[in-house]
Amino acid sequence: MPEVVKEQIRDEVKEEVLAQARQERWGEPGAYPDWLHRISFAGDVRFRFQRDRFPNDNIPNAPPEVFATPGQRRL
Q1: CA of 69: how far to CAs of 30, 36, 42, 61, 63, in Å?
Q2: What distance in Å separates the CA atoms of residue 28 and residue 34, rounded to the nearest whole number?
Q3: What is the model's pTM?
Q4: Residues 13, 46: Cα–Cα separation, whole Å
Q5: pLDDT, tens digit, for every residue of 39-61?
């Protein structure tokens, strides 16, 4: 294939790619795809806070019977 034909094909492909880039706004700062403009969000946001408070003396919050030795009964 002659070099002239190769250059002509290269130029045609380059022009097609550049035209597509201009149409789809490639490399344009702040440009978003078209499908992004069609999406919208609606609703509300709720936050919840839960605090687990434990005693300062490091004693678990369990009834005393759990910690009694076998045969010993605490009331």
Answers
A1: 71, 67, 59, 17, 13
A2: 13
A3: 0.37
A4: 53
A5: 888 999 999 998 877 666 666 66
